[in-house]
Amino acid sequence: MTETTKNTTSRRAVTQGLAWSVPAVAAASAAPAMAATTPADPLYSYQVAVGGQAGLATSGCGVSRIDLGTLDPFSGANDGFGIYEMAGAESPATMATVEGPLDLVFALPAGLFLDQVDPTTAFRIVEGNYAPPEVVDTVTMTNPITGVTEDYYVFVYRYQGSLTQPTGAPGSGDTFDGSTLRLTTNDMKIDPNYCVNPDGTLDLRTGFFAGGYQGDWTQTGSFTTETGYTGDIDFPIDSNYPDNPESWITLGQR
Known about the structure:
Layout: E1 44-48, E2 51-56, E3 63-69, E4 81-85, E5 95-98, E6 102-109, E7 123-127, E8 134-142, E9 149-158, E10 164-166, E11 182-185, E12 202-210, E13 222-225, E14 230-232, E15 248-251
Keywords: Signal
Organism: Micrococcus cohnii
Protein name: Tat pathway signal sequence domain protein
């Protein structure tokens, strides 16, 4: 699979407390998605937060458990995804429609999983209106953080809620119903001998795809509002490119 490369500017970094380590927080408010017809001030923005944590195994260099999700309790961002009105702009409350289907994707190292025939058995959904995971792709990628090249399974979680819901007020944290996703690994499904980074962290790649994940990380889809605005679903802004570490998150130990 050929992936397009693109240089982008860095987004806002968020520092967490003891429980998590260097999560990815993708907030379009830091650099709002532009409409097809670009106004001076974008009228609505797409926002989402994704993070996680990994527990180290009792022996060796592997992990015993992985938690992932859209929860972001540290930066104060929303817990799921939503379309938001912009402060200081003419963006009245309205209904927003996200291009469907909407997929939340995690690409994790294949070596993590004991069940290579069906690695989806490793995860269970704790919270969220999403279909059970599918592994739709196996890709070879180079981690831009570590420079390590290996195979990754692409896990797809498809949102099952309504794709048309009200916009949220600026800073409200209002999200689409059921869009908060929490995942955890099932016992004895992660290989404790898979070595994490020397500093005890684990890197993975993630993104949201309106219109469905189709193997192209650069095609992230769009949303529209009843007021006639069209904006991009970009996670985070211009991040879905293999040379940009901002589409990767680093999980730290508990």
